[in-house]
Amino acid sequence: MASFTNSFTFTHRSRSWPTAKIATRSASASASATTSLNMALTPIGPFCPFRSQAALEIEPRMESLNGATPEFATEMARLQLDMQVGQMPDPDRLRRVAEGIEAAVDDWENLLTRLKLSNDFQTREYAKLTQAHLASHGQNAEEIATMMRWQSQCMLALADNRPPPFPPAGVDVMKMMEQAKENAALGKEAPSMTQMAAAEKITSTPFTGEEAAFESENVREEYEALCRDHNGLIELGASYATFDPMGKLAYLDQVDSIEERWDVFFARFSLLGQLNGEFVKQCNAFLDSMGLDETGFRQLLRDTHDIMRKDAERERGLVA
Questions:
Q1: How far is CA 6 from the centre of its chain?
Q2: Which value, in Å, is the radius of gyration of the alpha carbons in the chain?
Q3: Model-level pTM?
Q4: Which residues of the chain have pLDDT under 50?
Q5: Phi and psi torsions of 171, nearest 5°
Q6: Which tens digits make up the pLDDT trace of 43-80?
Q7: What are 236-242's contacts with CB under 8 Å, separation 24+?
């Protein structure tokens, strides 16, 4: 039986940074980066510390979905283990897990719908990140939801000693299995809600506030300007869906610009060996748990914004 955890909503909240002053020193001392990711993740995409009101309002639902996943995945793993050793799983447990799958799919689809229909850029970006990550594994949200519901029905049939239902129409089960094998051969782990639940571990900040570079007034002013401009851009994006197509494209250009500014700022601290080592370590752990590296994460974010650009161009009637 295939695993049910073949989907996820790309959600993460790093520790918030001050918007107009340097962060106070954390308990972890500043250290040069010694892990494989020397630049660390800049505060872009899901790692942006500046939150829109819409993102703040929807975060409890994200946390609820992620929080329920580990226990759910453990039950599923136990069932699979029983079947691998030729032991018939307990029918009541099968029914509980099947009902849990249905509830999880309902919650996941409702969450994605809310993200997609939001006027806010930041919440829409979450939905497009999910779409882009699934697409990189040859999957989409609709197929995943359909397959999970089918797995739930198969488990109920097994619990009732009935023949399993036919695979859902319009879903190529063999193709999905081959894609999973290909991803495994390439070392690409399929997106998983379990991964995301385990991945929310970035609690540190990239700077302690006592790095030597901040002794420079120019550096302090640059940092404060970056925080101010980025926060302002997030606030402006609260009505992103109401922008006309050219306005959406212009907004995405501004997002790219602020990301480039963060890259330059982080690069300076990286060269000086003044990025918080604990922050870099946590970034590596997050990427590892998602089966990504820094290049893969940045490509995923580019793919996400490309999807949003194509959506805007489609509104203009320039793409099919």
A1: 14
A2: 22
A3: 0.77
A4: 1-16, 18-39, 193-194, 196-200
A5: -115, 120
A6: 888 778 788 999 888 877 777 766 655 566 677 777 77
A7: 237/52, 237/120, 237/121, 237/122, 238/52, 238/53, 238/54, 238/119, 238/120, 238/121, 239/119, 239/120, 240/119, 240/120, 240/121, 240/124, 241/118, 241/119, 241/120, 241/124, 242/119
